[in-house]
Amino acid sequence: xxxxxxxxxxxxxxxxxxxxxxxxxxxxxxxxxxxxxxxxxxxxxxxxxxxxxxxxxxxxxxxxxxxxxxxxxxxxxxxxxxxxxxxxxxxxxxxxxxxxxxxxxxxxxxxxxxxxxxxxxxxxxxxxxxxxxxxxxxxxxxxxxxxxxxxxxxxxxxxxxxxxxxxxxxxxxxxxxxxxxxxxxxxxxxxxxxxxxxxxxxxxxxxxxxxxxxxxxxxxxxxxxxxxxxxxxxxxxxxxxxxxxxxxxxxxxxxxxxxxxxxxxxxxxxxxxxxxxxxxxxxxxxxxxxxxxxxxxxxxxxxxxxxxxxxxxxxxxxxxxxxxxxxxxxxxxxxxxxxxxxxxxxxxxxxxxxxxxxxxxxxxxxxxxxxxxxxxxxxxxxxxxxxxxxxxxxxxxxxxxxxxxxxxxxxxxxxxxxxxxx
Amino acid sequence: xxxxxxxxxxxxxxxxxxxxxxxxxxxxxxxxxxxxxxxxxxxxxxxxxxxxxxxxxxxxxxxxxxxxxxxxxxxxxxxxxxxxxxxxxxxxxxxxxxxxxxxxxxxxxxxxxxxxxxxxxxxxxxxxxxxxxxxxxxxxxxxxxxxxxxxxxxxxxxxxxxxxxxxxxxxxxxxxxxxxxxxxxxxxxxxxxxxxxxxxxxxxxxxxxxxxxxxxxxxxxxxxxxxxxxxxxxxxxxxxxxxxxxxxxxxxxxxxxxxxxxxxxxxxxxxxxxxxxxxxxxxxxxxx
Lengths: 422, 288
Prior knowledge:
The structure holds two protein chains of two kinds. By secondary structure, chain A is of the alpha/beta class. Chain A contains 14 helices and 18 strands. Chain A has helices at about 1-25, 40-60, 90-100, 115-125, 140-145, 150, 160-180, 195-210, 225-235, 250-260, 275-280, 305-320, 330-345, 350-360, and strands spanning about 30-35, 65, 70, 70-80, 105-110, 130-135, 155, 185-190, 210-220, 240-245, 265-270, 290, 360-365, 365-370, 380, 385-390, 390-395, 400-405. By secondary structure, chain B is an all-alpha fold. Chain B has a domain at about 1-110 and about 130-215. The interface of A and B includes residues 44 and 231 of A.
């Protein structure tokens, strides 16, 4: 009797293990951890775009892993790393928390700010987790991969680097110069690593290409009065206001520019100038502003239907349009990159996945997605060949019209009527 | 010319932000370091009345001022009342409450350019070769009116005199039948109402920003420390000094030194004349 009881007990334990642990592993979704700053539209809309991508993939049955279909699941956590005054260490704690608690197979999206992303690399590589960034843009991320491939091979990026992005500026300025003969610029940037580096890159290009640089102003994150810079631009008669900001409150720069009727054309990136609600929020004071979202998809580009499809799907799914100026379309495509890699590897083995990721060649909302040796998506000027950024101009009543590159442009850049008062 | 015009606008903006804090902390001696949080709270209340409930804007202004005032009184009874007479604890408790309010708004997603308030007037005017929008002129006008109102209030009304009496000597004030707790509560309410006036006037030139709550308390403290805690005239003079200093520094030295100016001013004044330029009754180190 005693032996029989023991046999029954062992049978029950084994049955429990098979039916819970064994089957649970087979049906549990593949977790994609999403640790980023969720306080800005770029942050939470990027996450929402990723969730939309997983829903689309899951509606087709999910991904193939060893002959079985498995679903994808996003688990997000707010690192708050992009907020002023939040130390990098606090943001890293969120990374560690989600890795420990959710046991993800991938980290996607990743830190919003470069400082946090770079700090997380060592921890993530120790865990041998594949990390596909779609937010931060520091080129140091890629140079670390190139310099120490064995340690950092797990890291990929579906996003422009600050250099790719910064290169857009001279391309747009060249286009502007050829259309209107403009040749002087004043730079106004946010006092953060990425924006100052972008500003310095552009300043160097301007100096090397016979443009007059009338000034370079840096404003602290959260500044709300830009009159000192705008008055200098007026005084020095600069043709172009080259700007680079990420925080919503820096949108006051555009409001002040328009109100003061400063006779120059703003060209640059400011996340809060993208999205239909921006037009309403600014009372139309965005008219003539040229904005450079870092990747297409944030505005629908007729010449690239996938961007229109993504843009419309997002609005349908979430009930409102894309308001973030960056990171939303890249986040969406990052999930498809993961799904494609898993399907081709037919496995969750890390080494196999790294190989299939390196061989990625798919079309996404941002254009054609392929990785370079530095594990960054290759950016270019034709979406048939590479991922692309673009520039658009706000035209009344509230239209975002692409003006660069030529492969997707719908009109020439227009100067504001008060520009002639120079 | 642009330095003069925008320096003046910047000065009046500082005065408008600081006048409520000066009344509560400087004149009534209540440490309300949630002043910046009330600035942001007022703007969200106004946004709610206007954008969510769709009320006419004059009513929005009235209701916001009243609501903020009531919430100021509420904060007094919930947080500060129990700690009265212990200034350090009042500072810690009110500052903590302020941070909690600001971070609450951040947690519920109160960031983005869609949180904005309408301007009183749209359009701009040229003063010489400087273009300035009407809203900034409104800030100057409202700042002067607020300071004027406060001056009349503290010198010519019973409650204002009671606030000053309580600040000078609470025990003697009690002997004269002044209920110091009630007066303190009214003082907090008025301070919160004044900062609501500030936010309704200043916020429309940009957007509602939670981080501005932290800046407002630093700037208000700087104005009060430089001007002298008990002096309304000091608030105006300090605002002019700091406002023009900020404008000159950002125009001619570096734009990213904007917030260094008030912090440096606090250090210099505390080192040289702790009671401030026009402080009358007590040295600052006895007060905090």
